[in-house]
Amino acid sequence: MEKGISFLAQKRTICLEGNLINLSTPVVMGIANVTPDSFYAPSRLSGSDAILARTEEIISQGGAIIDIGGYSSRPNAPEVPVKEEIRRVCDAVCLVKKKFPLLPVSVDTFRSDVVSAVVRNCGAIIVNDISAGEMDEKMFKTVAQLKVPYIAMHMKGTPTDMQQNPSYHDIRNEIFLYFSKKLQQLRLLGVEEVIIDPGFGFGKTVDHNYQILSMLDDFKIFGLPILVGFSRKSMIYRYLGVDSEESLNGTSVLNTVALLRGASILRVHDVKPAVEAISLVEKVNSSNIA
User: Which residues does the UniProt record annotate as the domain Pterin-binding (predicted)?
Assistant: First the structure.
């Protein structure tokens, strides 16, 4: 970072339904996709039993949050009608919240109508928006009215075109300007519970992704929790010459790097290895010799 830029103290809690999620030690967000076409096939869930089994697995392995998605954001994924996304997500969220009322639930959606329907039918959630309001102009006002935590992710383009030769003149400045504008808009609306996500794999080449990871510390300038999500993504398996099934080790390595550079939340398919990475990094951080 340039000299003269001061960092805000990084926010260490998120408030959901009056309860604080403590991020002073990083936490794991387990992925649960109620879609038939998510890029990582084992993450696809169908039916109540599968959803509850996945939730129990996330909890038993040490996950702190479940992230439920009803619309695949992989490039060229087919469009899902709003009513169908609402049905998928509401069914899953209500099921999870009824069986596990203390587990924080995040919903992966860019549609404000989905957010409103889930909160109305199931209760408060964290909103995980891959477009940070770009794909639905009502999103920020909806989040403000419902007073729910919000994850703002950086994406250049849309899921349809984001990987068609993405380019940046100055990747750091472009992404920082993007977040500065988004955060100002959210604050003017009174949205205080915000998490930022650099958006690994969304409108970035493999090299762009690693450039962002190398400067992850710099995102602390915003004073907000940082979420990272590169679980089994192409930035790992393409670079290593493997497939998504063989990319768990690479995911664990990048999660560890992210933790050492200030990540607060790891969004993953494989919860136990991520929890172990946090435990080991915390041990290293607490073992300094004076």
Answer: 26-279
| Whole-angstrom distance, CA of residue 286 vs CA of residue 278 | 12
Tell me the whole-structure pTM to 2 decimals.
Answer: 0.93
Contact indicator for 205, 166 with CB cutoff of 8 Å: yes
267 as an active site residue: the answer is yes
Name the CATH code of domain 19-284 (choices 3.20.20.20, 3.90.940.10, 3.30.70.330, 3.30.2290.10): 3.20.20.20
The half-sphere exposure of 185 on its side-chain side, counting CA atoms within 13 A, is 18
Of 233, 261, 272, 283, catalytic = 233
Active-site residue identified among 111, 267, 272, 283: 267
Tens digits of per-residue pLDDT, 172-188? 999 999 999 999 999 99
CA distance 124 to 230: 26
**pLDDT tens per residue across span 59-89:** 999 999 999 999 887 766 678 899 999 999 9
Residue 258 CA to residue 216 CA, distance in Å, equals: 7
